[in-house]
TrEMBL record:
Alphabetized Pfam families for the sequence: HbpS-like
Name by which UniProt lists this protein: Heme-binding protein
Organism: Tunturiibacter psychrotolerans
Matches recorded under PANTHER family: PROTEIN GLCG, SLR1406 PROTEIN
Length: 131
């Protein structure tokens, strides 16, 4: 189970990576139920990315998949085409969401938004590694 202290550690690692690459980010951490535990909007991060980061964390936990991989599977002709329209539009298929695992079990997720897809994913990976 992810606690607030874990979420803070995950966010701190993600913030460090975002600062290293010079891209302010919104960073969200969700628990095993997909519920938001903590969120940070770094100085000058896009306001519109607050919602996206939270939904990336939720999506990653809801389907136990990195959102960049879900994006690949949701292209026209692929198995999850149209999934972004499910769950009242809550599903995000942009890179930046990663399930958080302990002992091989998904215990939550991180969602990052504010840069390119590659930047968002890299920052999410840095955060996930802190768990």
């Amino acid at each position: 189970m992810i606690q607030l202290a874990d979420a803070r550690r995950i966010i701190a690692a993600a913030e460090k990576k975002a600062a290293e690459i010079g891209q302010p980010m919104n960073i969200a951490v969700a628990d095993a139920g997909g519920n938001l535990i903590a969120h940070v909007r770094m100085d000058n991060a896009w306001l519109g990315s607050v919602d996206i980061s939270i939904k990336k964390a939720w999506t990653s936990r809801a389907f136990d998949i990195a959102t960049k991989d879900l994006a690949d599977h949701s292209q026209s002709g692929n198995q999850f085409f149209g999934i972004h329209a499910s769950n009242d539009g809550k599903v995000m298929i942009f890179a930046g969401g990663i399930p958080l695992k302990q002992d091989g079990k998904v215990v939550g997720a991180i969602g990052v938004s504010g840069g390119s897809g590659a930047q968002d994913h890299a920052v999410a990976e840095a955060g996930a590694a802190a768990l």
